[in-house]
């Protein structure tokens, strides 16, 4: 990845005469947007975990005592034609209002087609009566 300092240094030396200060700023802003997009899920998980702990809830499940399966994302089914069960178009079909193509789905082997697991942190803890 090209650093902003390197671009500024090159601009000062006039090696890249076609690059203006606005373009360098655009590269910097674009880099920050890309990094924030990549980091967003991790930041969300961190903040939700902190909020749950401050409320006295389980950090992983939020006192639901169940966690969604990471392979099938809680549905209990995986598509049989994809090796990694990921397709960018799967997310676009509902947005565009297009009917999804008929793809054979099989039960998830990781969660035995349940779509969930018991939370390892709090499922053994029973509420006192």
Q: How would you describe this protein?
A:
The protein has 129 residues and is mostly helical. The chain has two domains: 1-56, no CATH class; 63-124, no CATH class. The chain has helices at residues 4-13, 21-54, 88-96; strands at residues 66-68, 77-79, 105-107, 116-118. Strands 1-4 form a two-stranded antiparallel sheet. Strands 2-3 form a two-stranded antiparallel ribbon. The model has no long low-confidence stretch (mean pLDDT 77).
Notable traits:
129 residues; 3 helices; 41% helix; 2 domains
**What distance lies between the first and last C-alpha atoms, to the nearest angstrom?**
58 Å
Instruction: Spell the H/E element sequence.
Output: HHEEHEE
For the biggest sheet, the summary is:
2 strands, antiparallel
Strand order of the largest sheet: 1-4
Contiguous uncertain segments of 5+ residues: none
Q: What structural category arises from helix and sheet content? A: mainly alpha
Shape: flat
Question: How would you sum up this structure in a few lines?
Answer:
The chain is mainly alpha-helical and 129 residues long. Helix content is 41%, strand content 9%.
What are the SSEs and their pairings?
Blueprint: H1 4-13, H2 21-54, E1 66-68, E2 77-79, H3 88-96, E3 105-107, E4 116-118
Antiparallel strand pairs: 1-4, 2-3
Helix pairs in contact: 1-2
